[in-house]
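can u do me a favor
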């Protein structure tokens, strides 16, 4: 992980947040190449789950919502973590995580606060910082960031930064359904920032306090006999395998036990990824029943039911929710892509084997020597019309290949001595390092087929 972080920094993918001021704990900025990967990932998700799905539509709701939303959704009263302090060094920990790190077989999410306190005492679990075994009692720590809207700073002006994008979808269910005259079943997708004041953020971009989510709320009539939960779980796997090429051996599907389910859910499956620090949740697929629409209907006193045109009956739709973090997915993709390869004879390379559709640049164009600069530049401008291209003329060819490998550019095109006469260039593929000679008239067709 250390090597990956250093590599991503040096190549312009991810920088420490607020670095020139000594940084801000667990905040990360996406550099010129990181933002390209991130945007392409979001585009791939949007295409698969919104644009190209026959049922779904999209939305972009506010980050700050009326606080009644969070009261109704249960977040104000129930969205908290079990906080425990070390009495010796005053460091703060999530009690459930202390237990799970002590014994990875245990799921502390199903334990009560008392059970957690007793377990920590009985097992003499040590403070990870100072190794003492002396903790305070567990307290509930609210995870939502609270701030004030407007000029007054009293309770009436209190607002929260959203901890999930989902609620913005539920409160717009009626607007979206009516305006587009949607019939059940249909889903609403959204990509956007969420904020949680996590007690123990960490593991690079795996858990941060500011992050982005890609969430789909799929609404269906509870009398519908189709197994929509399996349908969406399957779509999630299709996306992982076919759209962003996550290897099957790097992830697994884990169903939640009954006592582990969130208060709103009747079934949940997590897709877990084999991160460098162990298996961790990547993507949750939850059956939320009609919990949210019902809560908002009661609290807002608005009719949020759907009138079934065939039976003429009002129904409160049920919901399946696949929800994933952009940065967590980025970590999975970048980690899987990072390779150090020994090329023999004292040569080695770092290569980012990113899926072609997520690489910051699809193609790099370079002249072999100065004499070919003009022709290479002309080819570069031409290709820019149809591809994401970069141009590099500094350093020897070997170094330039290594540079493109290091940022994951799938194809490097070299314009050389023979180009003017033969009207052809060399195209080198990143992973195999194989080179082929392609006629310039066929180049675009050749490249298009590759992507
Ligand atoms: N609307 C349901 C929901 O928010 P969640 O399991 O709390 O469910 C969904 O979050 C996904 O969001 C997670 O699977 C993870 O990918 C991402 N996520 C949650 N908290 C995160 C954090 N602090 N940092 C980065 N990603 C996070």
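np, heres the sequence
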């Amino acid at each position: 992980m250390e090597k990956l972080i250093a590599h991503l920094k040096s190549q312009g993918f991810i920088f420490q947040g607020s670095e020139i001021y000594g940084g801000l704990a667990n905040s990360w900025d996406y550099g010129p190449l990181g933002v390209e990967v991130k945007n392409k990932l979001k585009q791939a998700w949007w295409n698969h789950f919104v644009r190209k799905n026959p049922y779904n539509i999209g939305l972009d709701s506010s980050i700050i919502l009326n606080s009644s939303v969070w009261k109704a959704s249960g977040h104000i009263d129930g969205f908290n973590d079990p906080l425990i302090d070390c009495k010796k060094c005053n460091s703060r920990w999530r009690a459930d995580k202390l237990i799970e790190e002590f014994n990875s077989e245990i799921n502390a999410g199903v334990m009560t606060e008392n059970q957690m306190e007793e377990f920590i005492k009985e097992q003499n679990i040590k403070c990870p910082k100072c190794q003492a075994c002396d903790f305070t009692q567990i307290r509930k720590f609210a995870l939502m960031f609270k701030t004030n809207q407007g000029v007054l700073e009293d309770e009436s002006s209190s607002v929260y930064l959203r901890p999930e994008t989902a609620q913005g979808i539920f409160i717009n269910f009626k607007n979206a359904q009516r305006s587009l005259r949607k019939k059940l079943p249909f889903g609403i997708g959204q990509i956007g920032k969420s904020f949680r004041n996590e007690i123990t953020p960490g593991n690079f971009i795996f858990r941060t306090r500011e992050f982005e989510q890609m969430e789909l709320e799929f609404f269906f009539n509870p009398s519908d006999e189709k197994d929509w939960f399996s349908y969406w779980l399957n779509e999630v796997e299709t996306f992982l395998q076919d759209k962003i090429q996550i290897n099957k051996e790097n992830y697994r599907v884990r169903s939640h036990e009954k006592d582990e389910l969130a208060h709103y859910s009747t079934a949940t499956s997590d897709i877990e990824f084999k991160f460098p620090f162990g298996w961790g949740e990547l993507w949750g697929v939850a059956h939320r029943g009609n919990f949210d629409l019902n809560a908002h209907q009661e609290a807002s006193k608005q009719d949020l039911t759907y009138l079934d045109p065939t039976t003429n009956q009002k129904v409160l739709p049920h919901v399946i929710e696949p929800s994933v973090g952009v940065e967590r997915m980025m970590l999975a993709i970048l980690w899987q892509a990072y390779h150090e390869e020994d090329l023999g004879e004292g040569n080695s390379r770092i290569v980012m084997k990113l899926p072609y559709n997520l690489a910051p640049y699809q193609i790099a164009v370079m002249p072999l020597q100065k004499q070919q600069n003009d022709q290479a530049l002309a080819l570069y401008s031409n290709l820019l019309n149809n591809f994401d291209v970069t141009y590099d003329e500094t350093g020897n060819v070997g170094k330039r290949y290594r540079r493109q490998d290091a940022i994951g550019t799938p194809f490097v095109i070299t314009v050389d001595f023979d180009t003017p006469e033969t009207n052809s260039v060399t195209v080198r593929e990143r992973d195999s390092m194989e080179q082929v000679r392609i006629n310039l008239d066929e180049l675009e067709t050749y490249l298009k087929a590759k992507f």
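The longest strand covers residues 278-289. hope that helps!!
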